[in-house]
């Protein structure tokens, strides 16, 4: 793939100003704002574009083809893998101005939105109409629908409802060569041709720029209830959840906080945390009121031999109180150490107790703090290795051992954050040379000059 690019010279900048006017940013303070995301990296772009429609994006990409400069699509900048950064310079293409909810159709159970719509805003808009958009990444209040689709975002409700990819029916995108295309459908079923929608979903802006999305909706569950089970060990929390599944129960959410995570959160929520607990399992059930009541009763029986304390909340205020600990994880962990290596691994659920114990032992081996939390329900665990600056090399060795264990356990190195810049070195460990070559050939078909988000994934 071609990897030598032209800088944004005065001639290119003049043409970009003609397309964008004042929405072409060059000031140092503007560029600095787009030089970071939620990863630990920092790369200053040469300029930033704020297009307002697909036609402007098409013009920009045709110019990029002609002049050979890289274009980095970006949503709200919440990516944890550096996917929205510009390590090779070039033009950051912000999609925040494409922010309309175009349609919410209650009969077809679909919505049409632009990529810059914030996920939380969209979820509330459909819920006002008695509908439900289940994907709920932790960043949903400040991440965009387009970014969620580009990175294949998940969230706690992935256990019962699936992840973002399961709700994208169709999309409009601009190809690297500047063509505006539509793929997919508006109907619930359809098998005409290859599934290009799923190819774009999770492609991290390397195949095209998504400019419109058709999303599937479902009716909003009428009743919800939350269980908080406080336990004496992380492994026991994983075992308790496996018993829930064996009992024939299927919660919408099953979230785990290990001892390190719980200890960090205790400092922010002293009154809400069981003082001796070493793990927290959060279960949520939803559906018809009678079914939820039956599920709660059965869950209580199943969990009676586990845990130190069990709390149940049915009304919204009490449920939110139980969820506070989960929502405060990120700011709480930042107080432990300045450095962090974060991965979102996924394992078969049966392997989780063993893996959680292994991750803890790796932390002890290297003298580092390892925090495990996240979506126990679908096997998606967030492993955070926390370290002081002088221990970064040890942290990277520990990360290697943990990711190798994931792969040896038939797992995957990313369940919802993608590969981006931070994980691409691990891709050959999970994918065979033949599969990697095929993926690179697909990239070349969509983006022959490799101008779209170069340096990511591969």
Task: Please sum up the structure shown.
The protein is α+β, with helices and mostly antiparallel strands. It is 35% helix and 22% strand.
- The count of helical stretches stands at 16
Over the alpha carbons, how many angstroms does the gyration radius reach? 23 Å
Low-confidence stretches: none
Structural class: alpha+beta
The mean pLDDT is 95
Report helical residue fraction. Answer: 25-40%
Terminal residue distance: 10 Å
Based on DSSP secondary structure assignment, what is the total number of beta strands?
18
Major β-sheet, in short? 7 strands, antiparallel
Overall body shape: globular
Describe the strand arrangement of the main beta sheet, using strand numbers: 15-12-14-13-17-18-16
Beta-strand residue fraction: 15-25%
Structure commentary:
The radius of gyration is 23 Å and the shape is globular. The longest helix is centred in the last third of the chain and has 17 residues, at 392-408. The protein has helices at 10-20, 28-33, 54-67, 119-127, 145-151, 158-161, 196-200, 234-246, 259-266, 289-302, 316-327, 329-334, 352-366, 392-408, 427-430, 433-446, and strands at 24-25, 47-49, 71-74, 91-94, 101-105, 110-113, 131-132, 168-175, 180-184, 208-216, 218-219, 223-231, 253-257, 279-287, 309-313, 339-346, 369-375, 380-387. It has 458 residues and is of the alpha+beta class. It has a seven-stranded antiparallel beta sheet with strand order 15-12-14-13-17-18-16, with helices on both faces. A five-stranded antiparallel beta sheet has the order 5-6-10-8-9. The chain has a four-stranded mixed beta sheet with strand order 1-2-4-3. α13 packs antiparallel against α14 (392-408). 35% of the residues lie in helices and 22% in strands. The mean pLDDT is 95.
């Amino acid at each position: 793939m071609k990897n030598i690019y032209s800088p944004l010279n005065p001639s290119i900048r003049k043409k970009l100003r003609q397309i964008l006017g004042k929405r072409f940013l060059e000031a140092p303070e503007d560029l600095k704002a787009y030089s970071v995301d939620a990863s630990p990296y920092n790369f200053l772009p040469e300029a930033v574009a704020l297009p307002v429609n697909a036609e402007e994006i098409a013009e920009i990409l045709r110019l990029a083809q002609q002049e050979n400069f890289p274009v980095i699509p970006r949503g709200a900048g919440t990516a944890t893998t550096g996917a929205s950064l510009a390590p090779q310079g070039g033009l950051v293409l912000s999609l925040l101005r494409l922010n309309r909810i175009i349609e919410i159709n209650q009969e077809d159970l679909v919505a049409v939105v632009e990529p810059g719509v914030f996920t939380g805003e969209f979820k509330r808009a459909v819920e006002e109409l008695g509908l439900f958009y289940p994907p709920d990444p932790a960043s949903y209040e400040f991440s965009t629908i387009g970014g969620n689709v580009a990175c294949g975002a998940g969230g706690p409700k992935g256990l019962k409802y699936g992840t973002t990819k399961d709700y994208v029916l169709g999309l409009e995108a601009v190809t690297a060569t500047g063509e505006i295309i539509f793929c997919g459908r508006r109907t619930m079923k359809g098998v005409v041709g290859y599934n290009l929608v799923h190819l774009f979903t999770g492609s991290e802006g390397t195949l095209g720029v998504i400019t419109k999305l058709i999303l599937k909706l479902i009716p909003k569950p009428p009743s919800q209830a939350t269980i908080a089970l406080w336990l004496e060990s992380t492994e026991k929390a994983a075992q308790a959840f496996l018993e829930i599944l064996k009992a024939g129960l299927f919660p919408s959410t099953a979230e785990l906080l290990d001892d390190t995570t719980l200890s960090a959160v205790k400092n922010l929520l002293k009154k809400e945390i069981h003082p001796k607990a070493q793990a927290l399992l959060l279960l949520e059930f939803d559906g018809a009121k009678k079914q939820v009541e039956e599920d709660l009763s059965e869950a209580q029986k199943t969990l009676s031999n586990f845990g130190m304390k069990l709390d149940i909340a049915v009304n919204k205020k009490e449920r939110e109180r139980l969820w506070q600990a989960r929502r405060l994880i990120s700011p709480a962990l930042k107080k432990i150490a300045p450095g962090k290596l974060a991965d979102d691994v996924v394992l078969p659920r049966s392997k989780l107790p063993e893996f959680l114990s292994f991750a803890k032992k790796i932390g002890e081996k290297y003298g580092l703090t390892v925090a495990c939390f996240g979506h126990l329900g679908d096997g998606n665990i967030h492993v955070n290795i926390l370290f002081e600056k002088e221990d970064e090399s040890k942290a990277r060795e520990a990360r290697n051992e943990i990711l190798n264990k994931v792969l040896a356990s038939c797992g995957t190195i990313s369940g919802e954050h993608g590969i981006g810049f931070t994980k691409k070195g691990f891709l050959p460990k999970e994918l065979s040379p033949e599969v990697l070559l095929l993926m690179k050939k697909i990239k070349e078909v969509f983006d022959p000059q490799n101008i779209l988000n170069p340096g990511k994934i591969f």
